[in-house]
UniProtKB/TrEMBL annotation:
Gene3D superfamilies: Periplasmic binding protein-like II (3.40.190.10). It comes from Gloeocapsopsis crepidinum LEGE 06123. SUPFAM superfamilies: Periplasmic binding protein-like II. Keywords: Membrane, Signal, Transmembrane, Transmembrane helix. Residues 73-333 form the PBP domain. The keyword Cell division does not apply. InterPro entries: PBP_domain (IPR024370), Phosphate_ABC_transporter (IPR050811). This is PstS family phosphate ABC transporter substrate-binding protein. CDD domains: PBP2_phosphate.
């Protein structure tokens, strides 16, 4: 056979092979119900630099289906740094999407009050520092719509004490026993002979307290020794002048402070992981130098108390749902996740 005929046979065989492969893919797609986009199947030389299918959007400008208008939102006080830094950047990049944070008229600002406002129709979407409760989902369903929670960041919960307290750390069981009144003196956990005064906000004041009661106290009640304070600012002020005091809050609110110190925590004795990057920066060097968050331990789960931050969306097929979806999508872009990390939280992707 001539070289010319051999080439023709090889070309014909190649086309037949491609036809068989293409037909097999067509048959599989139709039988399996999978939608295969054949236009996206390319050779490496055609598309070396294109992002993978389904890759994340990179910046706020790339987010689609963003509604026009002014949208009220509310919720968790833990989210305050994100509202300050990230939300302003979103509005600068997308001026058609205007945001206004709304405080409740009769409740304390927090995750619970924000979700109540969302269900009642006062706001378009809410920010939460704890997952939705079954009763909140049921209440929304009674109103004729569903609720969706989209995790966008990871937060660590830090335990704060007076800076002069000499103690290496606490286990989760010890924290639980302190706040339920079973441990009343620091000498019971390896510290000095000093009465313990636990501070907390009321459980109705926000998602952080709800999370603490559910996940750390295992839904037990606070002990009679717990002193309630209106907010974290007041708690940290009290802690700075109370030698035996203890308090818990979102790590970005605690770790960089100059007047209190955060404690390493462990799931068991001798397993202490600090919420700050080691070595610990002495408070005498603050504010020139501050302790930084142990973001890696939060992200890997080494640190024993972490939680997700959620955007809670009303699934009603209207502009409220579109606004909530757009807001979550902004936060999940590369730009949004980088800004979240800069505010002291951990990126979720």
């Amino acid at each position: 056979m001539s070289q010319k005929n051999e080439t023709a046979v090889l070309v014909s065989a190649l086309f037949i092979t491609l036809a068989v492969i293409g037909g097999s893919l067509w048959w599989f797609a139709n039988r399996s119900g999978i939608d295969i986009d054949f236009s996206r199947i390319t050779t490496p030389s055609e598309d070396d630099n294109s992002p993978p299918i389904g890759s994340d959007r990179t910046n706020f400008a790339s987010v689609q289906n963003v509604p026009n208008g002014l949208f009220n939102y509310g919720g968790s006080t833990t989210w305050a740094p994100i509202r300050l830094a990230v939300d302003s950047a979103i509005q600068a990049a997308r001026p058609e999407f205007r945001l206004r944070y709304v405080n409740p008229t009769s409740d304390t600002p927090g995750s619970a009050s924000g979700i109540r406002m969302l269900i009642d129709g006062t706001i378009a979407f809410s920010q939460s520092s704890r997952p939705l409760l079954d009763q909140e989902i049921a209440r929304a369903q009674q109103r004729g719509f569903g609720l969706q929670q989209i995790p966008v960041a990871i937060d660590g919960l830090a335990i704060a004490v007076n800076p002069n307290l000499d103690i290496p750390g606490l286990t989760i069981d010890q924290v639980r026993s302190i706040y339920t009144g079973k441990i009343a003196n620091w000498n019971q956990v390896g510290g000095p002979n000093l009465p313990i005064l636990p501070f907390s906000r009321q459980i109705s004041d926000g998602g952080t307290v709800e999370f603490f009661v559910q996940d750390i106290l295992a839904n037990q009640s606070f002990g009679s020794n717990v002193e309630f304070v209106p907010d974290t600012t007041q708690a940290l002020r009290r802690l700075a002048v109370t030698p035996g005091g203890i308090y818990y809050a979102s790590a970005p609110e605690v770790v960089p402070q100059c007047t209190i110190k955060s404690l390493p925590l462990g799931r068991g004795s001798g397993e202490f992981i600090p919420p700050y990057q080691e070595p610990f920066v002495p408070l005498s060097q603050c504010p020139k130098s501050r302790n930084s968050l142990n973001l890696e331990a939060f992200q890997t789960g080494q640190y024993p108390i972490t939680r997700n931050l959620f955007v809670v969306i009303k699934q009603n097929g209207q502009s409220d749902e579109q606004a909530g979806d757009a807001y979550a999508n902004f936060l999940l872009t590369t730009q949004g996740q980088e800004l979240i990390e800069q505010t002291g939280f951990v990126r979720i992707r």
